[in-house]
Amino acid sequence: MYQWRKFEFFEEKYGGKSAIPEEVCGNITCCSSGRGKVVIGCDDGSVSLLDRGLKFNFGFQAHSSSVLFLQQLKQRNFLVTVGEDEQISPQQSAVCLKVFDLDKMEPEGTSTTSPDCIGILRIFTNQFPEAKIASFLVLEEAPPILLIAIGLDNGFIYCIKGDIARERISRFKLQVDNVSDKSQCSVLGLGFRVDGQALQLFAVTPNSVSLCSLHSQPPKRQFLDNIGSSANSVTMSDRLELIMGRPEAVYFYEVDGRGPCWAFEGEKKLLGWFRGYLLCLIADQRNGKNTFNVYDLKNRLIAHSLVVKEVSHMLCEWGNIILIMTDKSVLCIGEKDMESKLDMLFKKNLYTVAINLVQSQQADAAATAEVLRKYGDHLYSKQDYDEAMAQYILTIGHLEPSYVIQKFLDAQRIYNLTNYLEKLHEKGLASKDHTTLLLNCYTKLKDVEKLNVFIKSEDGVGEHKFDVETAIRVCRAANYHEHAMYVAKKAGKHELYLKILLEDLGRYDEALQYISSLDPSQAGVTVKEYGKILIEHKPVETIDILLKLCTEDGEFTKRGTSSSTYISMLPSPVDFLNIFIHHPQSLMDFLEKYTNKVKDSPAQVEIHNTLLELCLSNDLNFPSISQANNGVDLRLMAGPGMPKVESNGKLTSNGKDLNKERDRFERREKGLCLLKTAWPSDLEHPLYDVDLAIILCEMNAFKEGLLYLYEKMKLYKEVIACYMQAHDHVGLIACCKRLGDSGKGGDPSLWADLLKYFGELGEDCSKEVREVLTYIERDDILPPIIVLQTLSRNPCLTLSVIKDYIARKLEQESKLIEEDRRAIEKYQEDTLAMRKEIQDLRTNARIFQLSKCTACTFTLDLPAVHFMCMHSFHQRCLGDNEKECPECAPEYRAVMEMKRGLEQNSKDQDRFFQQVKSSKDGFSVIAEYFGKGVISKTTNGTLRSGNTSSSSGF
After folding, report:
1. What pLDDT does 86 receive?
2. Range 546-550 contact pairs with CB under 8 angstroms and sequence separation of 24 or more
3. Among candidate residues 446, 479, 473, 450, the one with its CA nearest the CA of residue 462
4. Are 53 and 88 within 8 A, CB to CB?
5. Global confidence as pTM
6. How far apart are CA 467 and CA 430, in angstroms?
7. Which of 177, 255, 533, 617 has the most CB atoms lying inside 10 A of its own CB?
8. Tens digit of pLDDT for each residue in 257-286?
9. Which of 486, 460, 461 is nearest to 472 (CA)?
């Protein structure tokens, strides 16, 4: 033990000149500490309490003769004393036990006070004979219950348990040693051990160490050792171990027997335990000096060593060690702070001792790491890089990694740096830069084995202990593609896995197989990102995967939870259009296969629009993104007789590339078929954008599509405009025959537009004009004068073209004129007759010659009624209606009703104009209204309907 290093981790407090206050008069017999005070008992029966700094607080007379033992309780401010009082009778012992409540003071005299004595107990009774007390110990079980153990010189221990203040106690005794020689059986040391519910008591005699189990009834005694110790050389550690000092060593005892022992030579006068340190007052027999040592057993060093005078008592209070000398001088020793102790060790380069010290005293991790860092810096300065790195590794989590990394980068110690970075990743404290650096170390060392361990660790922690994207990037840069792929696959980074397969390795089949193994959502994302590369190299296989993704019959659907749920989550083909940007033929194949499988897709309008754009384009490109030539697309100029115009603006002849022309023809056939099938007759609107379809047909000069769309939309004028633009006269006339028949819902005005077209054509079209005139004449579409004015604009037409038409029209008009003249003459004759009759009625008398009643045909007799219409009736046959003739009244009322109806119609302007608009001859409708006298006046240009006056004379 003399080889243990000595340090001055403690220092003397109060300048080393402390002493017991003068107020303490008697000789000190016992001491105790606790609750911030030091309690001293003297041989005159007084007890004194000292505050911090050994200042006298107060004192009182506890016993009349002498205070033998005392103990300050921890949980309550109670003081338990054992002392000698006046002997009441010869049969009773003078030794008694008292309990004082230091919080309650009783006035005694005028200036002094003493604490309240709450209990007095005689220790020795008839059942417990009197003996010399060798040791005394109090245990606070559960206040106010106390357990008091009193060791005697006859080998017995008297135990008193209970509430002394209320005199509710129980007594029992334990026999520790039964030896005839009383000097060998005295119980000199006691120690309580409380472990949960277990309550045990250590007892030390000069020749034995025993352990009594008090929780069992009766208490059981266990023999631990056959060697003992003298008085005051017994204490308890904070780990509930009994510490016993003998001249040759210091022994530790557990419940199962002797534990470790430490060979410190010299007589152990006093033993103590302070904050993990062993306090030992050793008397050297050779020189007669007393040495006070503080041992750090864990670190095997002497924390303090001091030669002292004769010590009577040793206490621990206020964080200090208090040594009371026989001459009443006091030595207070306190522990230095950790920083001071470490500075002392650092100056001597005792880093290992410093590390052990901070670890044994349970310093915080940051302080420990700082010591390790300094030790590492010391080893690094000595170029002991391996040991330095070992210390730096222990600082991970507290020391900034860049501090260590910079040192070993400068020293070019890549092996040590690799080790540090590995530990950094194992503890999950590595950043992206650390991962990059570690992988670069592996690749520079070409240490594939370690790289495999780091990347492909089987414990499953690898995906969490480094940044995945950084690892993949570094492995790719170093051409460790397999490792990068492993990390990407394990971490679920499907995009990065495919990026390596496609861009670095070009393994397209494997990439397609990997995509097929993914979940539908993940597969869709990866195809969107890398579909362009796959379409370029594996178009057929990529289209198959897309079809499986977008339809219901693929493997992806089988892995779904339910069919109905999955259908609503199916991706749309529109989402993948961008991957076909440079491969329109593949896009067309994909969309055609999709439309063949799925008939009611939610995105069918967008799909049909895209298909139409592909099918109708001249060069199988996307016309919507083609570049126009000076703002005009040259393809619009393409006609049947003109050379084709490509998207790049170059002209090619019709027969230059037969394969290209054949492909274009087939695509246009598909486009026309799509236009028709996507617009069923039962739907009002087609399954594509009509406006876009028309634009595509016009841009690509697809006349068949335009004709179908215009005709389907009932835009007949636009249909014939297409024929006119193409100078297709045969088709134009055939179209008018089909669309201009009003009996089949056609528009007869098409013939007028057709005639106008031929009139402005500027070339000889006599044959066509004659055919058109036939239909105009048949349906009486235009007046002859309009026909003449229209055809007169074409200088190439001769009069012979319309001579027959004009002759027939003139003959027809002549007949109509002759018929109108005859009708006029008849109406004039009827009018003259009516006027003559009216005049006759007004000026001449009427002679009624009827002899029979018109109603009953009997002979007419009076009273009779005669009407101006020459009808006569019996008055009884007329009844109450004598104002109108029953025979003529119905006809008259019908005429008047018709007149009122016409007058009412004349007020309904909308109906009047509707009849004018819908009639072939609007003039005849207006003439009819005037002829019936409905429209009588015009005021301020507004037609008014009025009632016509009857001149019938009824």
Report:
1. 80
2. 546/573, 546/576, 546/590, 547/590, 547/593, 547/594, 547/597, 548/516, 549/520, 549/523, 549/524, 550/576, 550/594, 550/598
3. 450
4. no
5. 0.52
6. 8
7. 617
8. 898 898 888 888 899 999 889 999 998 877
9. 486
